[in-house]
Design brief:
- There is one protein chain.
- By secondary structure, the protein is mostly helical.
- The chain is 73% helix and 0% strand.
- The protein is built from six helices and no strands.
- Helix 3 runs antiparallel to helix 4 (80-106) and helix 5 crosses helix 6 (154-174).
- It is elongated and about 55 Å long.
């Protein structure tokens, strides 16, 4: 299914913002994870909070952007490669912004301890792992959220329809399901 030429009638901006919620919600999760690591590392509270916000905020924006692009048909449901390219660019930028914010919080003139290209290359390599985690978490949150809002949100309703088509396609591809055989150790 390709991207629609025009936005659906009604309240298109609000509908897209509402569809973006699952991807945007992953930002605070990432921020909380970063804060937890900061606490375990014994970082001061201000640095820990900066770390959480500077990582979680941009991840929320990019995660919400992914949802909107998914709803617009730019991404296919469950497709890893295009999302990996998305985060190949996005994740290093998020980490660079995060490093800059933390350097400001600690009053350091040095943002990175290594050359910029080395930093970006490492973050690009790490972005694939982040992609897998993001997609896994998104696919657990988004369908439930979309089912909840589809009654008043035509963008969500269309995306739910795409999820249903995708599930049907996967079921057809798996072939007929064979009933499970009873274990010889279970009683009838």
């Amino acid at each position: 299914m390709g991207a629609p030429d025009t936005l659906p009638a009604g309240r298109p901006l609000l509908d897209h913002v509402e569809v973006a919620v699952p991807g945007a919600a992953i930002g605070p999760v990432a921020g909380l994870f970063a804060a937890g690591v900061g606490v375990l590392a014994g970082l001061p509270l201000g640095v820990t909070l900066t770390l959480a916000v500077a990582l979680g905020g941009p991840v929320a924006l990019l995660g919400g952007g992914y949802c909107v692009l998914l709803a617009r048909g730019v991404f296919s449901i469950g497709a890893v490669a295009p999302l990996a390219l998305y985060w190949l660019v996005g994740f290093p930028l998020v980490r660079l912004l995060d490093s800059y914010a933390v350097a400001q919080a600690v009053g350091s003139d040095t943002v990175l301890g290594e050359p910029l290209l080395s930093f970006l290359a490492l973050q690009a390599m790490l972005s694939f792992g982040f992609t897998i985690g993001f997609l896994w978490l998104h696919e657990r949150i988004a369908p439930r959220w979309l089912l909840r809002i589809r009654g008043h949100n035509p963008v969500a309703a269309a995306l739910v329809e795409r999820y249903m088509e995708h599930a049907d396609h996967l079921n057809r591809r798996r072939g007929p399901q064979h009933p499970r055989r009873k274990s010889p150790h279970t009683s009838p």
